[in-house]
Structures are given as C-alpha cells and as structure tokens.
Amino acid sequence: MRVAFFGGTFDPPHRGHVAIAQAAADAFELDRVLFAPAGRQPLKDGHATLDFGDRLALSTMACASDERFAASALDAPREDGQPNYTVDVLTELRRQMPDATIFNLVGADSFNDLGRWREPAELLRLAEWIVVSRPGHVLDEPEGYPLTAGQRARVHLLDAVHLDISATELRARLAAGELCDDLLTAPVAGFIRAHGFYRHEL
Ligand SMILES: Nc1ncnc2c1ncn2[C@@H]1O[C@H](COP(=O)(O)OP(=O)(O)OP(=O)(O)O)[C@@H](O)[C@H]1O
Ligand SMILES: O=C(O)c1ccc[n+]([C@@H]2O[C@H](COP(=O)([O-])O)[C@@H](O)[C@H]2O)c1
C-alpha cells in the first residue's frame, strides 16, 4: 500500500489541491491520498475562516473527484488546544499503517518553509516527500535548511502542475460575491454556496 498524507488548511480545498493530488497519485502510483485538514496550523496566526468540521466536510467533497482520495480527521484539533505538528500525525499514521510506504505531499511553498517546521529531520525520516510545483515558488531545497544526500534521496520533486490558485485569493473573491466555480470542484462550490460560507468575511 502506497499512501500519501496531504495536510493543509483546506479553507477551502480548491482545484489546485485536487490537481497536485492527482499528479502525485499518477506519478508515484499511490493507492490513497489522505486529504487531512489541520486543526491548528503551527505557523499560521489566528484561526481559519471555517471551523475544522466544515473544512473536513469540504475536503470530503473535494475527494469525490478521484477514487484514490479520502478525507481524514487524523489531524483534528488537539484537546489541549496546542497546534497540530505534522511530526505527530505522521508518527501516528506510521503506527496505524506499519506496512505502508508513507509519503508526505506538499506544494513547493510549504517545502521551502521546512526549516521552520517542528523536527524537520524526523519528518524526512518518517515519510518520503512529494513536492509539487506551484506558480511563484521555486521547486528546490528548503530555505536555510540544506538537505543531506540521504534526505535528498527521500524528496521527490514533481514539476507537473502550474495552477495559480490560492485559498487566500479564493476567500477574498467569494467574500466579494464572486462564484469562483472555475477554481473549485462542483460539489465544493455547491456546498459553499448553500451554506453562504466566506460571504462578507474579508
Ligand atoms: N495551486 C497550488 N499548486 C501547488 N500546491 C498547492 C497549490 N495550492 C495549495 N498547494 C499546497 O497544498 C497544501 C495545502 O495548502 P493550503 O490548504 O494551505 O492552501 P493554500 O491555497 O496554500 O491556502 P492559503 O492561501 O490560505 O495559504 C500546501 O502544501 C500547499 O503548498
Ligand atoms: O509541523 C509543523 O511544524 C508544520 C508547520 C507548517 C505547516 N505544517 C503542515 O503543512 C501542511 C500544509 O500547511 P498549509 O499552511 O499549506 O495549510 C499542513 O498539514 C500543516 O499542518 C506543519
């Protein structure tokens, strides 16, 4: 079993997420991609616009695009209110799936930031990494965190997707009343509309 953990804020999940998950699943013959909203992202100040339950529901809808995708509550908010560190969730995933090959799927911007994550060396030990291109970001080593040869061998750069979509821009456009149906999958767009999410939330 080849499984990718795909963590994100997913506020909301958009076509950029689906595209990189599909490119990764095709290129690395993944059986599963787990879209896992983070309860509380350690490097983001303040709260996501939508609560965890709504981001998980939207992630479940985004996963309807491909039978290899599934939403996961593995990175749900912690009871002690502390941030969700990926090192903890990957440790738990390894415990739950001891025989699987585990990948951590990220965009180039997230990987550039790796030096600021908790326990980067352990993160590279726990999983192989798939890093996908993102417009405006270099597909390269993390800033200020040079990799050893052994670590580099565990990082797979995938220059496959060039979709300039971000959740920040989407939220601003939805707040201004735009539909944004070209940037979202149909079930996600419908759910956002039905619940009035992001309207007037600038
Ligand atoms: N258009 C994209 N191309 C490549 N990777 C992406 C793209 N959008 C998001 N990602 C990656 O998906 C993961 C989850 O992203 P996230 O949920 O934070 O969305 P985002 O669009 O980056 O949100 P925000 O604008 O709120 O920061 C991250 O690893 C990010 O790098
Ligand atoms: O563990 C960390 O220190 C850490 C620091 C920054 C980001 N992450 C994780 O990286 C994933 C993508 O983050 P983001 O900001 O693009 O939503 C998400 O699962 C975050 O929890 C994790």
From TrEMBL:
Residues 5-173 form the Cytidyltransferase-like domain. Keywords: ATP-binding, NAD, Nucleotide-binding, Nucleotidyltransferase, Pyridine nucleotide biosynthesis, Transferase. It is an enzyme of class 2 (transferase). The keyword Calcium does not apply. It catalyses: nicotinate beta-D-ribonucleotide + ATP + H(+) = deamido-NAD(+) + diphosphate. The keyword Plastid does not apply. It comes from the Bacteria. One of its GO terms (biological process) is NAD+ biosynthetic process. Pathway: Cofactor biosynthesis; NAD(+) biosynthesis; deamido-NAD(+) from nicotinate D-ribonucleotide: step 1/1. CDD domains: NMNAT. One of its GO terms (molecular function) is nicotinate-nucleotide adenylyltransferase activity. InterPro entries: Cyt_trans-like, NadD/NMNAT, Rossmann-like_a/b/a_fold. Pfam families: CTP_transf_like. Its EC number is 2.7.7.18. Catalyzes the reversible adenylation of nicotinate mononucleotide (NaMN) to nicotinic acid adenine dinucleotide (NaAD). Belongs to the NadD family. This is Probable nicotinate-nucleotide adenylyltransferase. It comes from Granulicella rosea. The gene is nadD.
